[in-house]
Amino acid sequence: MTALLFLILFPLIPAVLLLAVKHDGARGVITRLAVGVIVAASIGLPWLMNAGLPVYFSFDAEWAGKAMFFIEIFLAGLIFFLGLKYKHYLTSVLITLQFALMAWYEFSLSGTVTIQQHLFLDRLSLIMAIIIGVIGGLICVYALGYMRDFHDHHREMPDRRPYFFFVMFVFLSAMFGLVFANNLVWLFFFWEVTTLCSFLLIGYTKTAEATTNAFKALIMNLGGGLAFAGAIVWLAWSGGPLELKALIASPQAMVMIPVALLCFAGITKSAQMPFSSWLLGAMVAPTPTSALLHSSTMVKAGVYLVLRLAPVLAGSYVGAAVALVGGVTFLLAAFIAISQSNAKKVLAYSTVSNLGLIVTCAGVGTAAAVWAGIFLIIFHAVAKSLLFLCVGTLEHRIGSRDIEDMDNILIKMPTLAVMVLIGIGGMFVAPFGMLISKWAAIRAFVHAGPVMSPILILLLAYGSAVTVFFWTKWMAKIMEVSVLRTGHDPLEDAISYDERFAHWAHTVLTIGVCLAFPLVSSQLVEPYVAEVFGQAAGMEAGNLMLTGIMVALILILPTIAFPYQRKAGYVFGTAYMAGLNEYPDRMYDGSLSQRRKATLKNYYLAGIFGEEKFMKVGVLAGTCLLALMLGAALL
Amino acid sequence: MKTIAFGIAYVLLAPVIGGLLVGLDRIISARMQRRVGPPILQPFYDIFKLLQKKTVVVNRLQNPAIFCHLFFMIATGFLFFEGSDILLIIFVLTLSGVFLVLAASASGSPFSHIGAERELILMTAYEPMVLMMLVGIYKVTDSFHFYAILESAKPLIVYLPGIFVGFLYILTMKLRKSPFDISYSHHAHQELVKGIMSDMSGKSIAMVEIAHWYENVFLLGLVYLFFGFSPVLGIAAVILTYVFEILVDNTFARFRWELAFRSAWLVALVLGGGNLIALYALMGGA
Fold first, then answer.
1. CA separation (Å) from A215 to A46, A228, A541, B82, B271?
2. Could you say which of A460, A481, A557 has the minimum Cβ distance to residue B71?
């Protein structure tokens, strides 16, 4: 238990230190040391626990509950005040309602409830903790270099880095609390802290746009928090269990209403339709914030909760509605991603889309689906974080985050370009993890029931076809080279060591997780699924071997083929332009002897896959499905 | 062990069969156009000639990508006839396709760039139907493995008529036949600036062509699955399908990409989706 408390509380120490320290060098030392400790502790959890998983801890924690309630009062006051100050009155209304519910629970209902086990660690919590510790930690290290550059590029903005790093570490602390909490009231406390942290991080730059989007995120997540508080009050009032473990083990009919409310909270936090817009608005924040929100924290908290509830959702109408919300989000967000050329928006829509698939897995709720969902979380966290960190660095170096400006980066910044290619590959191509998980999801959906199966298969079939399109065209852009390499380009040297370290660590992780996939499955995911569902799920040994071989091949083949062509006597020529080429940069003399420049742009099919159109469809469909979900719970 | 032998047999024989099929295609097409056509071995002569030509590349990444395209195409067929999970194999096929697109984009010529984009549109157009087909087959036979599906001896064509017709529709794309030859065409008028292959020469073209032969044999293997309960019928169906695709190739004008894309998705939704829904309604969940 000490280890769990350590992981929750320790990040607060560097947080406070970083708030006090203004010196950049000292900030670097503290951050690196703290991240080292957090990474070691999160990976070392199974050994630190010194007990077989899962373990549940019961202890007298009245003091902790009181402390949390006082912090909640303070935070509620803060949010209430901010809502008034910035004239986003809905914020103040929502926090008041939420606080009223929690005060009702605290003063009138909590006396009747006994909560035994406050904290726990099982294999899913362990996986989440490792993701939070390792990926979240690396993002903090990356932020050291990135934020320095950021303020060099944006001199007009106030340098509030101490505050930024303070919030980052508090965020990690809250995330650890969230995945270790068995007590739903505690879980709620950490849930609200992550909402507040993301609000503060999104609004970091204090521009008008950032403030508006931060409030948008806050309002939607407070709405989810209100549903969460409602679930707690309902459970306490009806004498239901206020512990996660007991809740999952309850018969469906008993707990359907609170479970639906919790799913609602999870769906808002994981930015599913109709709530996707807050995550897209969050793109105004500096890149480390985006990376953190998208990969290891915030949205992952949402899918974590829904995935936890999967056993209760399986086979129910609420589960079906949750699966459909996820499925529709998966499809529509992938559609919209086609029409985007802003790299960060493509990444954001792809996150929304992939989270949709995880939510679908949770809604289906079978052992096989949950197995797939957990792997989607793991692989998505690593590959998406890698991509965000690369795009953030690229943006500072080439001055653009538009995919159309990413040709020739193979010449200017070869290492970074290859990392982006690996990250994109990791997102959608066999044999990398995301695709393998998607494969597992299809297999799980085949058994989702006579009505759900064909619908989910259709959503998945179209969605994954589209995924291939928007990722491949990005890769194709990076492969395009129109200038000759003239010696060493200094662009790549200018990247700070912290950023480079984070890039490399992520790249190694992206490939490493794919290679370690059988081990992760047999040691962590399969036992978890077996323990929750009482039945096995996994991959056939032949397929495991096949994917392993393919991961190795895809790394080796290009490396052999690359030097081979020189030996094979290939000749280098120029691209066909239907004219006389004037190297470099796609200049050519046309038929009337005019010098012209050819420019290449990707297809965005905006007429078919427009953002505006599908966002509207998504909001409408998502709202209807959520209404159906809550309706189904009441019946 | 025996299935691995089948896989190896595919690796060795598929280019021979694929080449002969293309030779046959040329003769039949020629007869449809009242020409005599080349000898049946012409595709092989072409390949041998290409292999002797100087290979000019624009970008050093181009050829490794083409090599990976060929390699993963062979892997697709090998794994299929070896009896691995077809759902996984389809993703290997996608990987192979991605490499071809990357190879074409790497050259930086506007012509191959457009070819690459169109190839991507085709991939997006046909993929939903392929996934629905596999799910349909799985639903009927409870397996994703070639030999297990054959052993189930279920007349798939009876269970999956809509899916089969939908598959024929996208098969035309995969065989690179008109009206869907928008990224790369075999017709004579396209021989010089040929979409995705504009900047490939010598061994590069040879590799792409051979990959295409491998792919054709694999695709016909998928057609065979539908009639696999009776080998005679299966082989007859494969031959008929191929002749049918040649007929379509010679009787249709090329579609614009919008039409190709939209129609493929619609066909997949109506025929594939409809068939799946009917299948689940009749056979239940589980």
1. 39, 19, 49, 56, 46
2. A557
Bridge-partner residues for A402, per DSSP?
A342
Element (H, E) at A28: helix A24-43
Cβ atoms within 10 Å, residue A576: 20
Provide φ and ψ at B56, rounded to 5°: -105, 130
Least confident of A215-229, A376-390, A573-587, B35-49: A573-587
If we measure between CA atoms, which residue out of B164, B150, B147, B157 comes closest to residue B228? B150
| Residue B161 distance to chain A (closest CA, Å) | 16
Per-residue pLDDT for B189 more than 70? no
CA distance A133 to A126: 10
A460 and A327 Cβ atoms separated by less than 8 Å: yes
What is this model's ipTM?
0.94
Q: Is B85 on the interface with A (CB under 8 A)?
A: yes
Tell me which amino acid residue A176 is: F
Q: Look at residues A348, A347, A349, A355 and name the one whose alpha carbon lies nearest to residue A332.
A: A349
User: Of B57, B101, B273, which has the smallest distance from its Cβ to A565's Cβ?
Assistant: B57
A430 to B95: CB separation less than 8 angstroms, yes or no: yes
* Structure tokens given for A325: 């919300």
| Mean pLDDT value across residues B167-179 | 92
In this structure, is the dihedral angle defined by the CA atoms of residues A278, A280, A284 and A285, taken in order, positive or negative?
positive
What's the pLDDT at B285?
64
Distance CA A263, CA A231 (A): 10
Window 397-436 of A: residues touching B by CB (8 A cutoff) are: 407, 410, 429-431, 435
Q: What is the pTM of this model?
A: 0.95
Q: Do B127 and A464 touch (CB under 8 A)?
A: yes
CA–CA distance from A202 to each of A217, A226, A285, B56 (Å)? 8, 21, 5, 51
From first CA to last CA, the distance across chain B in angstroms is 32
* Residues A167-181 as b or e (16 or more Cβ within 10 Å = b): bbbbbbbbbbbbbbb
Tokens linked to A213? 């989007």
A412: amino acid identity, one letter: K
Task: Check CB contact under 8 Å for A570 and B55.
Answer: yes
Cα dist from B259 to A41, B179, B180, whole Å: 57, 10, 9
Structure tokens at B63: 């050829």
